[in-house]
Amino acid sequence: MATGVHGCRCRGRHPQDTFAQLIMGITERVGQAVRIETAGNSGICGVRFTPGKSYILTGKKRSDGIRETDSCDFISQLNNLSPYQSFYLFTRGSYSYNRNCRRKCKIGPESKGCGYQQENEYNKTTECLDNKALCKREGRQCRWVNSETCYPIYVITRTSP
């Protein structure tokens, strides 16, 4: 008798972190058809793609040459990328995911300059950081840039004794 149920479970990751951790990217020319394998359903991390749509995604290339992805990877229809994400992905300068990944900017709950976690019930901060922010190295430190509107505003009210 089974004692538990196991399904798809992913750790929340910023798109920059996803690209930095990538072992082997799936890269093809724009407009080129690509065969991608994925699990059969979302319960086991499978992904459904709409034929005819263009996607930007991460995944792996297996030793047999077959490309695969799952719902834990970064997947977005090309026209759904934010202007910030498009810029960070498709440039090579100091404001690119590519350069800042190579410069070892760490993103996560333990990061000193680029903290990232599912921190509120609606994940608004996380979603904003995904769409707008870049973890950029400046000197010896990494810090979020373009994140000014992402942090929740806490209102503290004082009550009299």
UniProtKB/TrEMBL annotation:
GO terms for biological process: negative regulation of membrane protein ectodomain proteolysis. Keywords: Disulfide bond, Secreted. Its main location: secreted. SUPFAM superfamilies: TIMP-like (SSF50242). One of its GO terms (cellular component) is extracellular space. One of its GO terms (molecular function) is protease binding. InterPro entries: TIMP (IPR001820), TIMP-like_OB-fold (IPR008993). It holds the Pfam family TIMP. The keyword Disulfide bond applies. It is found in: Secreted. Disulfide bonds join 101-142, 114-135. This is NTR domain-containing protein. It comes from Mytilus galloprovincialis.
